[in-house]
Amino acid sequence: MDSVELLAVGPESSAVPVSFEIDDREGAALRMKAPGGDWRSFSGSNLFTCLLIARTDLEKEGLLLCCQGARPDVFPSGMQQQMDNGRFATVLSRLAGEGEAVDIFDAADPSQVTSVEGQRVAVYRFFGLPLSGAGTDV
């Protein structure tokens, strides 16, 4: 089980530390704790899905998680989701060979991250998919 410390930013750029425990031994599970709060558990088909659920939970509190997996230009391919349980994702790029893989739990600058919905919209636009009628899942 890995442990990761990240920041989440709120209104007026206030930052709070958020602790994660990452478990991909059997399926995918994530535990998250913000200061003064209890541990919250999230499970899903892979770690990227778990991260989306945790980010949605933080967004209800007005917080954006500052990690590579919250960037609007980062999304895992189907192969990545199967091979490494969604732990790594690709930086989307139109340039051949430019799509580097990043650990979704690595820190990102607050200026680089967006909401789950913002990421969904960016990914749909990158792939030229229509936004109308699309579900809320990225």
What is shown here, in short?
With 138 residues, the chain is α+β, with helices and mostly antiparallel strands. It is built from three helices and eight strands.
Provide a descriptive summary of the structure in words.
By secondary structure, the chain is of the alpha+beta class. It has three helices and eight strands. The strands form two sheets. Strands 4-3-2-1-5 form a five-stranded antiparallel β-sheet, with helices on one face. Strands 6-7-8 form a three-stranded antiparallel β-sheet, with no helix packed on it. It is globular, with a radius of gyration of 14 Å.
Relevant terms:
5-stranded antiparallel sheet, 22% helix, 3 helices, 8 strands, alpha+beta, 138 residues
Q: What does the secondary structure layout of this molecule look like, with pairings?
A:
Blueprint: E1 2-9, E2 15-23, E3 28-33, E4 40-44, H1 47-59, E5 64-65, E6 74-75, H2 78-83, E7 88-91, E8 101-103, H3 116-126
Antiparallel strand pairs: 1-2, 1-5, 2-3, 3-4, 6-7, 7-8
Query: Could you list the spans in which at least 5 consecutive residues all have pLDDT below 50?
Result: none
* Biggest beta sheet attributes: 5 strands, antiparallel
Number of helices: 3
The gross shape turns out to be globular
Rg computed from alpha carbons, rounded to a whole number of angstroms? 14 Å
Q: Tell me the strand percentage band.
A: 25-35%
Work out the helicity level.
10-25%
Taking strands numbered 1, 2, ... along the chain, how are they ordered across the largest sheet?
Answer: 4-3-2-1-5
N-to-C series of helices and strands: EEEEHEEHEEH
Structural class: alpha+beta
Would you tell me the overall average pLDDT? 91
The counted number of beta strands is 8
Oligomeric state of this protein? single chain
- How widely separated are the two ends? 26 Å
